[in-house]
Design brief:
This protein is of the alpha/beta class. 38% of the residues lie in helices and 23% in strands. The protein contains ten helices and eleven strands. Strands 1, 2, 3, 4, 5, 6, 7, 8, 9, 10 and 11 form an eleven-stranded mixed beta sheet that branches. A hairpin with a 2-residue loop joins strand 3 and strand 4. The longest helix has 20 residues, at 234-253. The model has no long low-confidence stretch (mean pLDDT 95).
Length: 268
């Protein structure tokens, strides 16, 4: 039986304030395939520099199949976005490219700290579009999303059992996230939250059936036809990824080309 290995929380840039690089993004998605992934949800930060350029590039180098963008290497990319809310938390939305781009444009007045939208207002906006909405790393400090009114939390379609949090404190993260999912009656899936390739594979979601649309993804989540796979090396992968990210940002700050450093080396 074919099983689909998916990462539901990823990023396509090293950091929000760094310029978009086609070479870096190509490197990322090449490494995703080498890490064994069949697909991912690209939940890029809604206030990242050159958000539209990133998705414009992906659209130009992929073929559209359902709601996903299929790259030349076969990786399936579902467009998405990670949005900060006023209550201190991150909300994931996954959907058709056009919906994600339009939502990002509508959120333009809320991209600076101090102007992040309240949770209820953001969920109202998302309900106007065919997107799948979840809470990213719900128990990561200083977030307060789980403390919000239950009627708002029940509007989520899924929760993210985040790879970074699972690497740091797996027992707490698993217990709290699973308990909230049961209370809300919604699925708990997993994503690495990576901004660079080392973190791919620290955790992933193994789906039992194929899907190419958001509705199909929702059906597979709700049916529970998946399992979460946590790597025994997750703590090492996450620590190494953090060190690499800081080092690459420092190279950029000093005027160097961190992309050339990566792409001139052997695959991770």
């Amino acid at each position: 039986m074919f099983l689909l290995l998916f990462d539901v929380h990823t990023h396509g840039k090293l950091a929000k304030k760094l310029p978009f690089s086609t070479a870096y993004t190509d490197w990322l998605f090449g490494e995703a395939r080498r890490a064994g992934l069949d697909g991912l949800c690209l939940t890029e930060h809604f206030n990242t520099l050159q958000f539209e350029d990133l998705y414009g590039y992906l659209a130009s180098v992929s073929r559209r199949t359902g709601d996903c963008l299929v790259l030349e290497n076969g990786l399936r990319v579902f467009p998405g976005m990670e949005t900060d809310v006023a209550e201190c938390g991150h909300i994931l939305s996954i959907g058709p490219l056009e919906a994600i781009l339009e939502l990002n444009r509508r959120l333009a007045p809320h991209k600076e700290r101090g102007h992040f939208p309240p949770l209820a207002q953001l969920l109202d906006l998302f309900e106007e579009y065919p997107v799948l909405v979840g809470c990213g790393h719900p128990y990561r400090a200083p977030g307060h999303v789980p403390e919000q009114p239950i009627e708002q939390l029940r509007r989520f379609s899924f929760l993210d059992m985040n790879g970074k949090d699972m690497a740091l404190d797996p027992e707490r993260t698993r217990a709290l996230t699973t308990r909230l999912g049961k209370e809300l009656g919604i699925p708990v899936v997993s994503g690495s939250d990576t901004h660079q390739a080392v973190q791919y594979g620290c955790i992933a979601t193994r789906f039992e059936r194929e899907f190419t649309t958001i509705d199909q993804l929702r059906q597979e989540m709700n049916a529970g036809r998946y399992s979460i796979e946590l790597s025994e090396q997750a703590p090492f992968l996450v620590r190494t990824a953090g060190l690499l990210k800081r080092s690459l940002k420092e190279i950029h700050a000093l005027g160097g080309d961190y992309v050339e450093v990566l792409t001139s080396q052997a695959p991770v």
